[in-house]
């Protein structure tokens, strides 16, 4: 009987650890969250670029130059529900990133970038957990 309880406890522990959002587990080993302004992660959507630092101000300028502006911000009530580490709110309008703009963004395995209102959001594909929000990316 005790063996059965131990198996259940181990199974529940494994499930709970596997379901922790990536944002909770992501840190640089010293208790600090990664810097939001710059990233260097792997390659960039398969174009074999090495580590790429992102300057979000530069990204905004390039997006504006490419004509990707004018998105309306989310209504305040819905914007409050868009939180890092939480699932995307159900029914929230999200748009795919156009290919030419997507090539400017860092690639994170298991994530995808979406346009939500006038924000740029990185979402974990399997769980729809918001990993990163770049506010007002398309002003």
Explain what this protein looks like in three dimensions.
- There is one protein chain.
- With 139 residues, this protein is an alpha+beta fold.
- The chain has a single domain (2-134), classed as Nuclear Transport Factor 2, Chain: A.
- 28% of the residues lie in helices and 14% in strands.
- Strands 1-2-3-4 form a four-stranded antiparallel β-sheet, with no helix packed on it.
- It has five helices and four strands, in the order H-H-H-H-E-H-E-E-E.
- The termini are far apart.
Structure, briefly:
This protein has 139 residues and is of the alpha+beta class.
Number of domains: 1
User: What name does CATH use for the topology?
Assistant: Nuclear Transport Factor 2, Chain: A
Tell me roughly what share of residues is in helical segments: 25-40%
Number of helices: 5
Q: How would you spell out the order of helices and strands?
A: HHHHEHEEE
The CATH architecture category equals: Roll
Strand elements, count? 4
The secondary structure category is: alpha+beta
User: How would you name the oligomeric state of the polypeptide chains in this document?
Assistant: single chain
Characterize the biggest β-sheet: 4 strands, antiparallel
How big is the Rg?
A: 18 Å
Low-confidence region ranges: 16-51
List keywords for this structure.
single chain; 139 residues; Nuclear Transport Factor 2, Chain: A; alpha+beta; 5 helices; four-stranded antiparallel sheet
